[in-house]
Structure formats: C-alpha cells, structure tokens
Amino acid sequence: MAQMVSKRMGAFGTKSSSFFPQSPSPPYYSSHPTKH
Description:
Layout: H1 2-9, H2 13-19, H3 26-31
C-alpha cells in the first residue's frame, strides 16, 4: 500500500499511470478510496 500512498502524494504520478493506465488522474484516487 506504500506505493498507493506515494502515488496520492504525487511523488509517483508517472508510476500511477503504469498501475492505472485507465485513470491517470491523481484526484480520481482521492475521490475513490475503494479503488485502493
């Protein structure tokens, strides 16, 4: 889950695209914590 937290922080914004290419929008994860 550490990666998820880092992603939300915006430190791994590029990485998030790799994990969730269908939703590269950082705010999306914040709005949908269930996606974690």
